[in-house]
Amino acid sequence: MTFTENESGVGLLIRRRGSPIGYLLREAESRVSPETLREWISQEFGPKILEEAILEELTPPVRNAAPPTLTVAICTHARADVLARCLASLAPLQSLPNFEILVVDNAPPDATIAELVSKHPGVRYTTEPRPGLDFARNRAWQEARGEWVAYLDDDTTVDAQWFEGLVEGWRENPDAAAITGLVLPGELSTRAQILFEKRGGFRRGFDTRRFGSTLPGNALHPAGAGIFGTGCNMAFRKDVLRDLGGFDEALDTGRPLPGGGDLDMFFRVIAAGHVLVYEPHCLVFHEHRKTEAALRHQYYTWGLGLMAYVGKHLRPGEPRRELFERLTRWWFRDMLRQLKDAVRGRHPLPISMVLAELWGGAVGLCGEYRRSQRRIEKIKAAHP
Amino acid sequence: MTEDRWLVSRLDVAQPLTDLSAPADVGGIHLQLWHRELPLGQLWLPRGVFPMPPMELARAISRAIAPAVGNRIFPHGFRAPLPVTGDNPARDIPPDLDALLSVQTPISDLRSPNCLPRPHLSVIPKTTVPPLRDGCTELPSPISDLRSSNFDLRSSIVVCTRNRPEALEKNLASLASLDPPADEILVVDNDPADERTRAVVQKFPNVTWLPEPAPGLSRARNTGIRHARGEILAWTDDDTIVHPGWIGAVRSVFADPDISAMTGLVLAGALENPAQLHFERDFGGFGRGFRAFTLDAQFFEEMKTRGVPAWQAGAGANMAFRREVFATLGPFDERLGAGAAGCSEDSEYWYRLLAAGQSIRYEPRAVVWHFHRATDDGLQLQMEEYMRGHVAALLFQYQKHRHAGNLRRLFLSLPRHYWSAIRHRTAGRTLAREVRGCLRGIFYYLRNNS
After folding, report:
1. Which of A13, A95, B197, B368 is most exposed, with the fewest beta carbons within 10 Å of its own?
2. Which among B46, B55, B94 has the least Cβ separation from residue A43?
3. Inter-chain CB proximity A53 and B61 less than 8 Å
4. pLDDT value for B339
5. pLDDT at B92
6. Cβ within 8 Å, pair B94-A174
7. Chain B residue closest to A16 (CA)?
């Protein structure tokens, strides 16, 4: 493996028999020899490779029922170029039975998206005039014909085995109400994108995990919804979404609060007694923010979105307030620790980005959910 | 409270997996994972994870047993970490990728005769390692099968007991069904209050009863040494049940002439109450894991200045020695152990062995199940006595060997440990008694150091 002058390292997705088992992010100069590569792999993933072999030999019985019908929903807003790429990656799946793709065009300024979708026969198109991602997400499950709805962000592309991963999740967990998947970078071509991955990116590991009512060793369960997955690659049983009243429209509204809606839904699904499964074989690639300013803003919105979600559940009368109080204390303590590391130069992120996330959290906790609720009331009033 | 009662269950990974569900009246299932007669790992499954789909159980099992399976079938990459605190150099090299990728049936490979116990040096030889053959070991093993192994070494089992005839009876019943059997079983009746222990022993025709009126576990152990005739002396406690292959596995370890003593795996026999649960789950029980390791002179030298954690070798509930060791290094220290300082007569002997340049092998294939103290009072007392014995042993060791690491452990590491436990609120509920035990250990030393 050789690198050009512009490349300072490599992000390596390791697969075993097609299934992703690990991700290596390493800096390297000019060349990595096969021997080094082998050593990296056996050192980092030796136990994982053996675990997979043991799992195959154990051959637990798996229900061989037909997978449910699926709607893949892509909520987009004025980004035809990235949407086109996402649709192209889904094209091989289009011929599957019981499978549909639905593009929700959120507050469309013009007909660009509609025209793009019309060039993809078999892709359905609908609009959601009220601006806000969770308005669009709710439109999606209301319009969906499938029993399950898989949400993809428009700036993702799906892995060739993404659907197989989802099917695996269903077969192994017939009782699951939600399945989330792995998100890896589609490219690492700017410093901001590399920084984001070094900090952990959207990765939630390569072990399939089943989240139910208890999680040994995690006192914040199920409030710490960040470990369950992320909104750019998640799927839900439609009837569960309906029973829970859909996504909270006051979260994930787009500017100024582009986050928290996924976390809130994960928490509500588990708190309602359902099972959520994280299945890393269900893999998508995401195009990370390219500039450091955009990345800094993303961390700000992470803090903001998380604390808006927390703020919602801290309101008087919410049943799990005490849990969310603990989560708040934990988060601020952890962020301060990270800030300390950043000041000492022991954190992958520069100080400004850690501060941005911390500041976002502070703003989020100070009434952001209420402010957002008032904003969406105005939007609802404007679109009767 | 159902939360404080767990079901202890055994699962054989060679059998097809079935659905697992927890009875309503337990807090969860503590699953001990085996491949036939080989222990591979354990799982703690709280009631909330049920119903657990078979695939989810299979994943949890694969994660739990992978280290032990890798340790048995590959020469490198899955060695047990030595019980070392701090920045010790890595002793392992990564597994060979081709071997790793070519493994098709790791569980069945465990049955390969080459995978039976192999000498497990803690130090990687500087010379090149012979290439992997058939997914197995680097050194030809002299043993093909434990059951048919025909060692010349005669084995004596010594059980020291003190007024616990009910527990002893269960223990002796399990010893009676050993296969292969021991050559001799001795029960040392320590400080008997009545005839009940003797009566129990008389129910077992091949068991010898030895009275030791003076109280103290070390005294009882030493009485056993004087009367036992085997070349290998194995001890288990009266509150255990042994695996039928226990003594066979013990003997196989001594096929390696470099090994002077061994310890084995101690699993929880029952988790019926908060005390047993706390001791096993939160305190870690007597478990030393499912991978074999060897403590040797090099390990001792590396750890000497920091205090050698000799107690990490294992527990007196499952240990064995070559008889000649006692001729050269003397008997157990009678100031230590239950009935005296509280405990640590075993770990003081590990220290003595390692200081003399000898090697101790931990072999999880030799299994006993221990029934921990059932009451909170019993647990509190036990923890206090543990720390009293531990501290006294550190001081006696320092007095004898003059290795400053013992003092470092006592006056630096231990206070630091407790301070950090208090500061981070990770201290268990026995903390106060443990600290009290430490202080009593110092006084015990001052009174008995002549």
Report:
1. A95
2. B94
3. no
4. 81
5. 74
6. no
7. B101
The answer for B 17-76 residues in CB contact with A (under 8 A) is: 17, 44, 46-49, 51, 53-59, 61-63, 65-67, 69-70
User: Among A47, A174, A175, whose Cβ lies nearest the Cβ of B67?
Assistant: A47
The pLDDT score that the predictor gives to residue B84 is 67
Segment (H or E) for B17: none
**Closest residue on chain B to A62 (Cα):** B55
Contact A55 B44 (CB under 8 A): no
Residue B142 has φ and ψ, to the nearest 5°, of -75, -5
Q: What is the pLDDT of residue B111?
A: 83
Mean pLDDT across B399-411: 86
Q: Say whether B294 sits in a helix, a strand or coil.
A: strand
> How do B207-212 and B184-190 pair as beta strands?
parallel
* Closest CA–CA distance from residue B310 to any residue of chain A (Å): 28
**Chain B interface mutation, best of A33, A58, A171, highest count of B Cβ atoms under 10 Å:** A58
Q: What is the ipTM of this complex?
A: 0.88
Query: CB of A91 within 8 A of CB of A117?
Result: no
Distance from CA of A53 to the nearest CA of B (A): 6
Alpha-carbon gap, residue B34 to B195, rounded angstroms: 39
Inter-chain contact B100–A46, Cβ cutoff 8 Å?
yes
pLDDT digits over B2-19, tens only? 778 999 999 999 888 877
User: Is B63's CB within 8 Å of A50's CB?
Assistant: no
Helix (H) or strand (E) holding B414: helix B414-423
Higher pLDDT, B260 or B426: B260
Provide the mean pLDDT of chain A. Answer: 93
B401 token code pair: 């060997």
CB proximity B281 to A under 8 Å:
no
pLDDT band of A225, cuts 50, 70, 90: confident
- Among candidates B146, B119, B43, which has minimal Cα distance to B17? B43
Contact indicator for B334, B222 with CB cutoff of 8 Å:
yes
Q: Cα dist. A333→A322, A330, A340 in Å?
A: 17, 5, 11
For residue A68, the 8-state DSSP code is P
Backbone angles phi, psi at A68, to 5 degrees: -70, 170
Do B165 and B199 form a contact (C-beta atoms < 8 A)?
A: yes
Residue B110 touches partner A, C-beta closer than 8 Å? no
Judge whether B20 and B48 are in contact, CB under 8 Å: no
Is residue B78 within 8 angstroms of chain A, CB to CB?
Answer: yes
pTM recorded for the entire structure: 0.87
Most A CBs within 10 Å, among B30, B45, B59, to test the A interface: B59
> Which residue's structure tokens are 């390292």?
A9
How far is the C-alpha of B275 from the C-alpha of B429, rounded, in Å? 10
pLDDT per position as a tens digit, A188-217 = 999 999 999 999 999 999 999 999 988 888
Which of A253-262, B270-279, B303-312, B422-431 is predicted least confidently?
Answer: B422-431
Which residues, 6 or more positions from A65, have their beta carbon under 8 angstroms from its beta carbon? Answer: A171, A174
What pLDDT digit, counting tens, does each position of B92-101 carry?
788 889 989 9
CA distance A220 to chain B (A): 15
Give how far Cα B272 sits from Cα of A342, B9, B28, Å: 48, 13, 11
| Chain centroid to CA A367 | 25
The pLDDT tens digits for A338-349 are: 999 999 999 999
> Is B140 a residue whose pLDDT tops 50?
no
**Best interface-test mutation with B: which of A54, A210, A274 has the largest number of B CBs within 10 A?**
A54
| A–B CB contacts, 8 A cutoff, strictly below | 96
Q: What pLDDT shows up at residue A335?
A: 96
pLDDT tens per residue across span A93-124? 998 999 999 999 999 999 999 999 999 988 99
Contacts of A212 in chain B (CB under 8 A): 48-49
